[in-house]
Specification:
Strand content: 15-25%
Helix content: 25-40%
Order of helices and strands: EHEHEEEEEHHEHHEEEHHHHEEEEHE
Number of strands: 16
Distance between the termini: 52 Å
Number of helices: 11
Structural class: alpha+beta
Length: about 425
């Protein structure tokens, strides 16, 4: 066990199953960082935001950590360094985390005009945990401005002591069934583009009506997530029309908290893989929708997900792997991720869903935004989230081309869903 300078054993804990992977993969050409932003009704008061960060961080000890490198594994320990400090926003968000920089903080806070942003290293938490953290921070910030905001709708009381259950490794708790042997998906169309110079991160956002999306999806008999997943699969499949046809597949993260009760604010997600195979023939959009709808309904169930949890946990608890030094373990895990987590997919799409807040808080937020960090290859990741009637959809990556996002938003417009598009691209 690690010791501090006085020879005493500091508080520490191991990374969860997902954290082990993200820590091994993190490097300059891959960013296991994601960002949530709230665009407020008024300009941001930086000093009030810093006070809110200072009051919120102690309530969330699993976010106030630094990562340390042991002989065999990375581990977390409390970060007692100054910070984290609120900074003015940057043009290229979600930059890779560098463990020895920024006083070791694994969360970042930015502001610009009316926008408040938080960036989180994925080894610390998934989107479900980070949204609870961010929502609480926004509530505390508004209180610093003099508004009365209740602790409801997932807002935690910063005056309370943190609960141990919030730091639970929920993967280990539910890995109680026989692991399922996962079949590795076939190599998918990679949807890669021309790499931008380091570090250029292209972000394109589309804004549309939740009501319009819901009406359109309901007309097809599917959910909004199923509808947007099918649109993305269809435009990527059409893009490779003149190339050698390969399967087109997406990585879709699933929040497990709705299936397995847990208060954890750490990682607790699994990924499913809806796909189509254009080598079998051309698909109409309705056929893609049917594939997505039935695949997700068939594969997202408690029994299969618990077996997948057990399989993932079995990997990290393998006795042979436990004694392999970390300098040898990381390259092996990186190769495994490439084979199982990159090549079988054409991209990632995640939809955390709506962002509900107390009615006292609602008028102070105009809309929400989400960005996923850069992939291991120059291709875009897609993410979306909604607030009120505004659905925000982001494409972000290090590729020069913008054809995937352009075709995606044009598809929505042809479907009768108006989209307002914004981008940080200079061309």
């Amino acid at each position: 066990m690690p010791r501090d300078k006085r020879g005493e054993k500091p508080e520490w804990y191991p990374l969860d199953n997902a954290g082990v992977l993200y820590s091994a993969l993190q490097k300059e050409k891959y960013s296991a960082i994601y960002r949530f932003s709230a665009v407020m009704a008024e300009r941001v008061d930086r000093d009030a935001l810093q006070r809110a960060v200072d009051k919120t961080m102690p309530r969330f000890p699993s976010f106030g950590v630094r990562i340390k490198k042991g002989a065999f594994w990375y581990y977390f320990e409390p970060n007692s360094a100054p910070g984290p400090f609120v900074k003015e926003d940057i043009s290229n968000p979600c930059q890779p985390v560098r463990f020895r920089e920024d006083n070791g903080w694994l969360v970042r806070f930015y502001y610009y005009e009316k926008r408040i942003s938080v960036e989180v290293f994925h080894a610390v938490s998934d989107g479900g945990g980070a949204l609870g953290f961010f929502k609480t921070l926004l509530a505390v910030y508004l209180r610093e401005l003099g508004y009365s905001i209740p602790n409801t709708h997932g807002i935690l009381d910063v005056a309370e002591e943190p609960r141990r259950a919030e730091r639970e490794d929920a993967y280990g708790r539910y890995a109680t069934v026989r692991p399922r042997r996962e079949k590795r998906g076939k190599k998918a169309y990679q949807n890669n583009g021309t790499a931008e110079p380091f570090y250029t991160f292209n972000v394109t956002m589309g804004f549309c009506s939740v009501a319009r999306l819901k009406e359109k999806a309901r007309g097809y008999g599917v959910s909004i997530t199923e509808y947007l997943t099918a649109v993305l699969l269809k435009v990527i499949a059409d893009k490779q029309h003149r190339e050698r046809p390969r399967p087109v597949a997406l990585a879709i993260p699933i929040n497990l908290r709705g299936w397995f009760p847990s208060e954890t604010l750490r990682n607790f997600i699994l990924t499913v893989r809806p796909s189509i195979d254009p080598s079998l023939g051309e698909y109409t959009f309705e056929e893609v929708l049917s594939q997505v709808h039935h695949y997700l309904r068939l594969n997202i169930n408690r029994q299969q997900m618990q077996a997948a949890i057990a399989g993932n946990v079995k990997f990290t608890t393998n006795r042979l792997l436990q004694i392999v030094p970390i300098v040898l373990k990381n390259p092996v895990m990186s190769l495994g991720y490439k084979l199982a987590g990159v090549l079988p997919y054409s991209g990632t799409y995640t939809n955390p869903g709506p962002f509900p807040v107390p009615e006292e808080m609602a008028p102070h937020i105009h809309h929400m935004e989400v960005i996923l960090g850069q992939a291991t290859t120059p291709r875009p990741h897609c993410a979306s989230m909604s607030y009120g009637d505004i659905m925000e959809i982001t494409f972000a990556g290090t590729q020069k081309e913008s054809d995937t996002e352009r075709d995606f938003f044009r598809f929505l417009v042809r479907e009768g869903i108006p989209v307002k598009v914004e981008s940080n691209r200079t061309e």
